[in-house]
């Protein structure tokens, strides 16, 4: 298992980067700098699935990083 752990971590990190880049850009950054960000939309369809997948792969990446430290 020790030989496959770094390879699995790299694969999960690449997938995580792709998922983050595929997410739709919103007005959240503009409202952080003082602009009026009155636009709010709920996530639906593929956007919601990308969001959930990003959370899952983020948690998996953290778990694999901790396992890399232990092993």
Can you describe what's shown?
This protein has one domain (5-70). 68% of the residues lie in helices and 0% in strands. The protein contains three helices and no strands. It is elongated, with a radius of gyration of 16 Å. The protein starts with a helix and ends with a helix. The model has no long low-confidence stretch (mean pLDDT 83).
Helix segment tally: 3
User: Roughly how much helix do the residues carry, as a percent range?
Assistant: 55-70%
| Alpha carbon gyration radius | 16 Å
Q: Round the mean pLDDT to the nearest integer and report it.
A: 83
Shape: elongated
Order of helices and strands: HHH
Major β-sheet profile:
none
Uncertain runs are none
Give a concise summary.
With 71 residues, this protein is mostly helical. It contains three helices and no strands.
Question: Would you spell out the secondary-structure blueprint of this structure?
Answer:
Elements: H1 5-22, H2 28-32, H3 46-70
Helix pairs in contact: 1-3
Features:
71 residues; mainly alpha; 3 helices
